[in-house]
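About this split. The held-out portion is used to measure sequence recovery: a designer receives only the structure tokens and must propose an amino acid at every position. Recovery is the fraction of positions where the proposal matches the reference. Here is one held-out target exactly as it appears in the evaluation file.
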């Protein structure tokens, strides 16, 4: 890595990092940003939580109120006659074939107002820290309303370098209740790059934005860090399954429980993560698994990423299980593969790019059921030791080739510095 740039300033917009417990994936990337830039301002939407991730003293931290108030939206109303708003309404009709109903219009105008607020925030930041446009790098970890404001800045000040990432909820229109994400074409047209974390996502975004400059949409994968030497030939132990996700409907942890209830051999299931369905999921597990003499299970809750990694280092895990119906490219799967753990997963979003059927695991259709999931688990549990060894070796190799943070984030830095 080249010496840290002492003249430029990176303004890094996040959702929660370095506050609270979310966005643990940024912990893998942040060290590479610190290597590349001496001057960094992290701007987080988190308003309440304490700092929970170590940040060097020279990094400035700022909290940013993401949503504008009703009064601010009203004060921004004169801007709503601008050409980009008219173009967005035309895009709604011509490409999405959506009617401009009250809810859609409110969503569109709310996002535009948030973008104007982000634009003012960035201008004030430049003035406060005396940052010249040619020395400013803007980086949004999400393709959300902040990126609209960044696009406005880039249009006004072409010397500014501005990029964003796109993952899942900020990329796939059907993850939004209205099946609509405002101003994506405007963002792509005016930012230098939009880095999508999967090929599936890149192709989806290009398809949703006909007429946009598709050369600005590039696949650039995330990655995880693992300095631990994986164990390919474990000692005898109880067949162990790990899952790691929020306890929300989309993650379908209930399907995991129904699948495990069908197994007729000794197993241990450990789940990491928490969420709104905590009570229902724990009650379901107690009812369906609690009385099985050959089953044990644990809910670890929301834990620091270091705790999860330590669990992988101290325990032999046979299979990582993910049955979500919507994904980007799960970081949890990358981490499992880096510890030589084969994966059984549904082909949601970009998961098919990381889980290769019969290579490093088993890929199931999204519309799967407990019979298919339990059968996949049983096949692996009963596989010959030689086959398991090969799966574990290929699991680690697939991570090292495509999702090793040391490779992927250095490539991101090269892309950023080449703008």
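Reference sequence for scoring:
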């Amino acid at each position: 890595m080249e010496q840290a740039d002492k003249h430029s300033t990176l303004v890094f917009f996040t959702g929660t990092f370095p506050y609270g417990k979310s966005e643990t994936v940024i912990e893998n990337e942040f060290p590479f940003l610190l290597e590349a830039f001496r001057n960094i301002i992290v701007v987080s939407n988190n308003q309440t939580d304490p700092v929970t991730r170590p940040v060097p003293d020279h990094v400035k931290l700022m909290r940013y109120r993401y949503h504008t108030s009703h009064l601010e939206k009203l004060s921004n109303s004169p801007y709503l006659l601008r050409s980009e708003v008219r173009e967005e309404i035309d895009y709604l009709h011509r490409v999405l074939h959506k009617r401009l109903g009250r809810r859609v219009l409110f969503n569109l105008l709310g996002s535009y107002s948030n973008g104007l607020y982000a634009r003012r925030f960035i201008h004030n930041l430049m003035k406060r820290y005396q940052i010249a446009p040619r020395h400013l790098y803007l980086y949004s970890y999400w393709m959300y309303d902040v990126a609209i404001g960044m696009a406005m800045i880039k249009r006004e000040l072409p010397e500014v370098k501005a990029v964003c990432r796109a993952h899942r909820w900020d990329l796939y229109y059907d993850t939004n209740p209205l099946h609509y994400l405002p101003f994506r074409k405007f963002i792509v047209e005016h930012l230098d790059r939009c880095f999508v974390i999967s090929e599936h996502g890149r192709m989806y975004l290009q398809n949703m934005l006909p007429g946009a400059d598709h050369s600005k949409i590039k696949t650039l994968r995330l990655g995880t860090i693992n300095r631990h030497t994986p164990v390919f030939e474990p000692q005898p132990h109880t067949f162990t399954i790990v899952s790691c996700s929020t306890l929300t409907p989309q993650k379908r942890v209930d399907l995991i429980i129904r699948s495990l209830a069908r197994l007729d051999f000794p197993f241990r299931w450990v789940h990491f993560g928490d969420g709104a369905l905590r009570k229902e999921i724990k009650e379901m597990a107690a009812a369906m698994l609690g009385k099985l003499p050959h089953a044990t299970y644990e809910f670890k809750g929301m834990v620091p990423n270091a705790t999860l990694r330590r669990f992988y280092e101290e325990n032999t895990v046979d299979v990582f299980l993910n049955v979500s119906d919507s994904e980007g490219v799960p970081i949890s799967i990358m981490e499992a593969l880096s510890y030589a753990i084969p994966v059984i997963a549904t082909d949601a979003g970009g998961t098919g790019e990381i889980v290769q059927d019969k290579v490093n695991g088993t890929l199931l259709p999204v519309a799967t059921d407990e019979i298919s999931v339990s059968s996949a688990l049983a096949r692996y549990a009963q596989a010959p030791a030689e086959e398991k060894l090969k799966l574990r070796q290929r699991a680690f190799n697939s991570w090292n080739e495509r999702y090793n943070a040391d490779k992927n984030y250095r490539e991101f830095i090269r892309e950023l510095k080449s703008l």
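Annotator remark: The first strand starts at residue 5 and ends at 14.
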